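Why run this: before we spend reagent on co-expression, it is cheaper to look at a predicted model of the complex and decide which construct boundaries make sense. The entries below are exactly what would go into the expression plan.
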Amino acid sequence: ETGVTQTPRHLVMGMTNKKSLKCEQHLGHNAMYWYKQSAKKPLELMFVYSLEERVENNSVPSRFSPECPNSSHLFLHLHTLQPEDSALYLCASSQDGWPSGSHNEQFFGPGTRLTVL
Amino acid sequence: EDQVTQSPEALRLQEGESSSLNCSYTVSGLRGLFWYRQDPGKGPEFLFTLYSAGEEKEKERLKATLTKKESFLHITAPKPEDSATYLCAVQASGANNLFFGTGTRLTVIP
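The model came back. Tokens follow.
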């Protein structure tokens, strides 16, 4: 595997389900990110982890719970979601941790298309 | 407040018809401006980083330029495989997160 991988690629869940999204980066990077992408809207930053420590929580509802067990893996735990949470969830990584230096380009995974019924 | 505006929202070009995409930004000191390409159902693919006004970068048929207020992504003699959504993002000085625009959806017709 190379780059940033995400599983599953597609997920359909009911409002009472609990599920988790997984992200793995094979780039040796120090920072990892979760973004939400909805139609016609800019990418929304949700969470940032730098060297396995959460450094940013962008006012995300508590029904989204991130976990970063090590610098290569990032999870997003989902519970009691709402239909408006349906979107493409993207994971990214960057070489620099936060605060970032000169290597702050972010590299994205393919995303998980989430549908909440 | 930091802001990124991309135009046009959508662009249809004939194969070989060169054009430019615009990214206007308002930021309290620019640390970096980033261009990404996104194909349907996929994550954004990194293209360029620009750091200061006057800087230019090229990759195949794409050329990115930067001024103090905007960036252009010039596409020379596009091919159908250049069809994608092109995203622009800025990082402000002293900040770590990126602000993204809504993108320009480019369609190149054979």
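Residues 8 and 29 of chain A are 22 Å apart (CA to CA). Chain A touches chain B at residues 4, 6, 40-43, 45, 48, 55-56, 58, 90-92, 98-100, 104-111, 113 (CB under 8 Å). Bring this page to Monday's planning discussion.
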